[in-house]
Design brief:
Length: about 150
């Protein structure tokens, strides 16, 4: 039986932009809930919340990805990276989809490492993200200076 997780991605929206995260990183999706602010954190860190007894750092996807939007983040995507589990606040979630192998284009050199590339589809462009780097402040933080 083939391993479908190798090619499946969860799409979500922030403002007018469409993004995707590989499903192997997704733990669960749930509606927004109150977040406790963290003093001195980067502006894209909304704060912390307890989910099933575990503290999670909450990132605001619009601020982290420098997207201007008037829309409020309504959902949390709880995801795993190699370093930690965290929540990403997004406007909406699309679908789980499979991209054709020839649809991938690498991110531009020198661009934010959280962006792994783009996928060209019949519906437009989807930016793929690497959760391992979402907690980095545009590559200025070292592992020892993680915000959460």
């Amino acid at each position: 039986m083939p391993d479908d997780t190798k090619t499946q991605w969860l799409t979500f929206h922030v403002g007018n932009e469409c993004f995707a995260i590989h499903v192997k990183h997704i733990c669960e999706l749930y509606n927004r809930q109150p977040v406790t602010a963290v003093l001195g954190a980067s502006d894209y860190i909304e704060g912390m919340l307890f989910h099933r007894g575990t503290p999670l750092c909450v990132l605001n996807a619009a601020k982290r990805l420098n997207i201007e939007t008037d829309q409020a983040s309504n959902l949390f995507i709880v995801m795993d990276s190699e370093q930690t589990t965290f929540a990403l606040a997004v406007d909406s979630v699309g679908e789980v989809c499979t991209f054709p192998p020839d649809s991938h284009q690498d991110a531009f050199s020198g661009y934010d490492r959280a962006v792994s590339g783009i996928r060209i589809t019949a519906n437009g462009m989807v930016t793929t993200l690497n959760p391992e780097y979402l907690l980095e402040d545009n590559d200025r933080l070292t592992k020892e200076k993680r915000p959460c």
